[in-house]
């Protein structure tokens, strides 16, 4: 990311610019106080832990691929898997374990997976929080590739016999960055309807879907190597009475949409190959596009989250640069994000995605540990991956009252979305265990 000032700006212009920035910041702060939203609390969340028998060790993946796509393509897939950052314990749904003749994903197979993932996560969350399902007034579910009739939200209302006046929304096709979108929607619904009760959000990707690719095109086979079973359920409240038992307060939801750029729009593209197999084609440019989306995203995020010291560092950078009138290449300014956040839960999209994010954000290895370990243990779980990252951080006993958490989602559209949280009470490692409870002691691993 680069912040640069045109060299023709002289000192007085820069001073004027600085004053304007300070005035604008003061005005925004004033406006923020005047129009302050009621606080939104996160009571708790739960991540789905796949059953052992759904595991896909490398050897099983390779053997399976050989049967389905033949030796040559199977060796390509294994090569990709070995470089993907995924470990030996990630899981795929039942349908993906079939050997040829591989059945097309069926509606009942997709429903089975959706019920397994979504109900397990919700059951766990309701058990942890002791919440009565009848207290839920808002329900938002985001799932990219599976959108049945009736919807996933109807499936949940039916299972838990939720209220008939529930405000429910199923968000489809919104990609891996849709977690913060769901959080933002639930927040707005809670604020617009103050006495509606709690909001339940589910972020997941159902793999047994028509777009689970069964052909032989490399760019469409890569998602089969990366995506794995996963989902998270989250409970939000706008009621101050829930504050004492809540873990986090929502500070910001920030969204950036880059679909006006054709390259970004098409870099994750659902289509049929020449043989008619539906799938999602993954462009090699995803990491480049993500960097561009991040630059735009930072323009909104940074003024909101950077502490004053970092904003002043930025101003002084501007002043120094304009005084130097140097002809050498423009220096870059990368904010020290660790001054704004204590924990980073980034989209675990694949090794190259995590490497790219670490580089762009100038993060240390320990700051991307939660993301890398989520990728290793659970794979690319789409929009829920940022919750596996937070689950890891909690299970390691690293979350303390006052800590600031950044969840960053990236995905199809192309979109880049953030949710920023502040921890409002210490979180005990055992309490945070969840999907990580029986394995966190084995992490971090080298990958
Ligand atoms: C796929 C990788 C694990 C491969 O690892 P490396 O890059 O280290 O290895 P590499 O460059 O040698 O690539 C291995 C082989 O894969 C091929 N290859 C890589 N990417 C490809 C692509 N998009 N299409 C076709 N082939 C591809 C290379 O040419 C090479 O083939 P050969 O060996 O023959 O030369 C990595 O590039 C990665 O993590 N990419 C990012 C994945 C990504 O986009 N994730 C986001 C998913 S979408 C998402 O999460 C959000 C959403 O859905 O909304």
From TrEMBL:
It is an enzyme of class 2 (transferase). Residues 34-321 form the FAE domain. The keyword Membrane applies. It holds the Pfam family FAE1_CUT1_RppA. The keyword rRNA-binding does not apply. One of its GO terms (cellular component) is membrane. The chain crosses the membrane at residues 12-30. The active site is at 176, 257, 343, 347, 376, 380. Belongs to the thiolase-like superfamily. Chalcone/stilbene synthases family. This is 3-ketoacyl-CoA synthase. It comes from Dendrobium nobile. The lineage of its organism: Eukaryota, Viridiplantae, Streptophyta, Embryophyta, Tracheophyta.
